Amino acid sequence: MKVPSKQTLFNTLCVVVLLALVLPFAVTAVPQLVGADQSYTVLTGSMQPAISSGDVIIVRDVPASTIETGDVITYELDSGRSDVQRQTHRVVEVVEREDGRYFRTKGDANEDPDQRLVSADTVVGRVMMTIPYAGHVTLFANTTTGIVVLILVPTVLLIGSEVWMLISAVRKSRGGER
What we know:
The chain has 2 domains: about 5-130, Umud Fragment, subunit A; about 145-175. The protein contains 3 helices and 7 strands. The chain has helices at about 5-30, 135-140, 145-175, and strands spanning about 40, 55-60, 70-75, 85-95, 100-105, 120, 125-130. Helix 2 crosses helix 3. The longest helix is centred in the last third of the chain and has 34 residues, at about 145-175. Its EC number is 3.4.21.89. It is an enzyme of class 3 (hydrolase).
């Protein structure tokens, strides 16, 4: 059996590392890849330890009738502000009223349930998956430093890899001429 060369092992390792780095961000940017509808970066620790600040949550739009106690949902807050605020908490009780379905929610890290009931029509969806720490990179990427680092570093690595391959090819061809 032939043993793979160092170059083959290095190339394989680079592909694996690249996939491990790119896939979470691809899912964050295009949640439809995993059958979801939205992705959000979590900014607070109210859902710790299940979901931490800096994690990215992938949310799927689901009918309110399918949401049950124990589900983690993302919903819009009526904050009175022009920009829409969203919150992600666990459903601790489903409340049926004459005027519709409501949910009592609670952050896992909070002692008490939220004061207001969440109306079914404000629910964005159910949290489908969490990508730990990915939000830190997303937030960093929205800064000038982040843009420079996230473009400059991969560019330098790519150029370095190409130079390495050229040097290796030149050395190999010179060794064969003797």
